[in-house]
Amino acid sequence: MPDDTPNPDTPISGGHLVAKALKAEGVDVIYTLCGGHIIDIYDGCVDEGIDVVDVRHEQVAAHAADAHARITGRPGCAVVTAGPGTTDAVTGVANALRAESPMLLIGGQGALGQHKMGSLQDLPHVEMMTPVTKFAATVPDTARVADMVSMAFRECFHGAPGPSFLEIPRDVLDAKVPRGTARVPRAGHYRASTRSAGDPDAVERLAELLVRSEKPAVLLGGQVWTTRGTDAAAALVRDLNLPAYMNGAGRGSLPPGDPHHFQLSRRHAFTHADLIVVVGTPFDFRMGYGKRLSPAATVVQIDLDYRTVGRNRDVDLGIVGDAGLVLAAAAQAASGRLDTGAARRKEWIEELRAVEEAAVAKRLPLLRSDAAPIHPYRLVAEIDDFLTEDSVFIGDGGDIVTFSGQVVRPKAPGHWMDPGPLGTLGVGVPFVLAAKRAQPDKEVVALFGDGAFSLTGWDFETLVRFGLPFVGIVGNNSSMNQIRYGQRAKYGEARERIGNTLGDVPYDAFARMLGGYGEEVRDPAQIRPALERARRSGLPSLINVWVDPDAYAPGTVNQTMYK
Description:
six-stranded parallel β-sheet, alpha/beta, Rossmann fold, 40% helix, 16% strand
């Protein structure tokens, strides 16, 4: 048999060492915008069979790496050049930090031999990236390249996942060293499992609290999907008859129609519950910093990061651990009880269902409205009905996506994507890029605000170039309407349109110009037919839907920053 052991004297470049380390991590694609500092990485990726997907803006590359991690459960990777290439990617990295998404950004840098001499695109990247990453460092020597790439990946999974950054000076990247002098970590041998089932005593106490509760409520947050704990979460709420609410990537943990799936009665539940279990969601602005939870309720918080537990609000029980493992262990502990309390909670479930149905009935006229301009509720109701079991829904925008959060119900786990708590606009196109590339057999449906699409919309051409079809909808009100509402609330009608009004852009024509499918809709009856035609086109598409600019989502109206 041939000896596959590499000759230790064979020279290997820094760029090829990067590629070998990426391959060991299971990375099969990098998202990038080219630059002279980083091209040896491309050369290495070709040899290692790693796809190189080139985009038109570095922010798109970073967002796509973030999305790749969310979809696949494996870390994403973006590679950008030095200086403005790296600064352009900062927003994408920061978004991944707040969204707890494991990704590695590799940035170029001027040669070490030209350090502090004013080389092309030289900036203090590490100092800039440190506040928005879990790990940021310079690779000082070619022999250390692969070792430091693996180090960066390890840090991505310490506690709650997040991004890492490495800058690699040009001479370090281009230089060659004998293969035997470079440590190239072996796949599966350089980082440990970080999964923890939590303190057994705390899990036993959680089971006891669940069994004894009369009016419990469970919030399934993004970490339920991050840890791939959706099966455990679904089993727990079904076995113990618990009402479940979902946010962020936790949406889809239960399918629509499941008797334990609740969406619109959360305020009522959190006000009247005797036990609230918050899984994988911080007490941040989305939770009113914990103030929306009844002060009389027993509150349990489960999180991957010990720093998150009890932040902004005291808790009665905090458990640090993997959401799926903790919930599975709690279900197992509760199953040993003679009475799990499931039957006792029937009236509570019925009470919440009545609140839910009343909320749907109240807005039903708007969900079915035939008004023109089109009411956003009608648009998102049509989208919800259009989604299939295989449709991944992506929301990118302010007010229009806030509408969708109340109506659109993903049919399966991992089928909802939004920016996360940083609230970054412009994630839509790069999320589509990563989602469709990672799961080509899944349909991707993306809803954009017109302002949000404009930020990264030129990479629609990247979707055309790589043959990645999706159904895109622009809710077009020619405004940054969430901000417009705030200005109106604070300063009155005379100043409501300062700095937030956009042109009446025909995004359908933009799509056609770039080789995709485009269609304009002004009649609500034409929304569904247009979506069907976009689906059948087999192309990247944009359905430009003109929506009522004077309709605001309740979530926009209730934002505390406008009070």
